[in-house]
Amino acid sequence: MTRIIGGVAGGRRIAVPPTGTRPTSDRVREALFSALEARGVIEDAEVLDLYAGSGALGIEALSRGASTAVLVERDPRACAVIQANARVAGVRGATVRRSAVLAFLRRTPAPVDLVLLDPPYREPADSLDAVLALLPRWTRSGGLVVLERDARSPAPAWPEGLEPEEPRTYGETTLHLATAA
Questions:
Q1: Euclidean distance between CA atoms 112 and 25, whole angstroms
Q2: Which of 10, 61, 68, 95 is most buried (most C-beta within 10 Å)?
């Protein structure tokens, strides 16, 4: 179990899929969403949560005022957990899409204000690079992309159209941010 940190669902416990999921720690989620709120990124935002796992990131965004969140996850058990978590949290605007992230991104884009990515730490670099290469089409100008990685992982290869910011490290986790041109 983990919990939603802030917003209308703050403090509510949500489930974690039984296997293969590493939810973002409460500490990292709190730091991330505090920074996003300070920048005015969350309120009324349209959010894309890739490698959604438990749905904690997308649901946290909805709890804090995002208008919609599309949560993309390939594991059907995790998708069921995400749907249950959105109900438990009492948030509106969550849409769960069962799909591999790369296959989802190859569709006609519906640009959003905020893209959250929490891929498995062992995701191959070439696979992650292919995902990142498609994100400029999915991110509105001035929108933000947030990538969570193991602190020991190399910096991501941001594609043209995404301007990287200084990474932020919290223990074993690094958050890489980039703004869409």
A1: 24
A2: 61
Q: Which fold has domain 2-180?
A: Rossmann fold (3.40.50)
pLDDT at 33 over 70: yes
Per-residue pLDDT tens over the stretch 83-121: 999 999 999 999 999 999 999 999 999 999 999 999 998
- The residues, any chain, with a CB within 8 Å of residue 23's CB and separated by 6 or more, are 2, 16, 53, 54, 56
Contact assessment for residue 176 and residue 139, using Cβ atoms and an 8 Å cutoff: no
Q: Is the pLDDT of residue 66 over 90?
A: yes
Residue ranges per domain, the chain? Answer: 2-180
pLDDT at 178: 98
Pairing of strands 173-180, 139-150: antiparallel
Bridge partners for 146 per DSSP? 116, 177
* Residue 20 Cα distances to 23, 46, 51, 122, angstroms: 10, 27, 11, 11
∠ Cα 26 20 168 (to 5°): 40
